[in-house]
Input
Amino acid sequence: MNDLVAKIKQSIPARNMAISMIFILLCLAPLFLSDFRINLLGKFVAYAILALGIDLIWGYTGILSLGHGVFFGLGAYCMAMYLKLEASAGKVPDFMSWSGQEVLPWFWKPFASAPFALAMAILIPSLLALIIGYLTFKNRIRGVYFSILTQALSIIFVVLFIGQQAYTGGTNGITNLKTIFGFSLASASTKLVLYYVAVLLLFAAYVFCKFIIVSRTGRVLVAIRDGENRIRFSGYNPTVYKVFVYVISAGLAGLAGAIFVPQVGIISPAGMGIVPSIEMVSWVAIGGRGTLTGAIIGAVLVNSLKSLVSESFPAVWSYFMGFAFIAVVIFMPLGLVGISRQIKKFLASRKTSAGVAKVVCEKDY
Output
């Protein structure tokens, strides 16, 4: 028992050291990277917020969602609507005029307010997750069936947003975003501020997720992952906890979409599809599911490598990412964060084997 307590005390500072180093490096990055690279890194930081939400529901609760691109896209569209109205100076956006829409739709008008748009970027994905989660988890739909259902959700929303071109911009999405709060999105100073806002939101999201994980709710979520029936027989209602974590995960995805749009300047239905949703899950798998630090590392590192490889080898970067994912799943099931754990386990087994062999030799002697 004392050895277990000692190990826990040793691991906590190490984990705090790792996450502290990550945020220090993110804060110091503008000193070493160009404006273009900082803008890319800001996008990856937004992805890290999304990865934290996926890790909550998949890594800690064991629910594999392959439709988080929908929640990310909804949050991004909410923010893009505000930015588009600001760029249009309150007039009907250009893509609406091209589609014959002469009057601004009633549901677009409230998005002229930035606080409303930011609130909706979190609330709309959360509300959608609440409805879907309640209907599915209450009926005990789980495992591969839930994953397929979330994939169907992605298809539905992609088709819906493409079909409503007069209101969503269709296949092209919402583009030509120029300013935010009156500041030019093309300005280097604006991009730098947006980057630090993204880092601040990532830190807040990490602290929030950490609070959930170390609480009793977090322990119940892990118990659901390890044995849902046992937690049900213990007197808990898994549906409540699963809906809760699904809503939180969707809200984080919406927040990530909201900070993603002003840094990239575009959002289209393609970002809500199945392929992006699967990529989002791969970030967590490669970084290390069930570890918040791994989710952040996976999102930033995988997308950084994706950007670098696609610049040098545009024709093969997708194959590279696929092989990388397969290699991690086969040889590093605990992800990059779990490498040290695997090495320690291997060394401990070697030490135990050597000790047993020594004892056997001494007895034989």
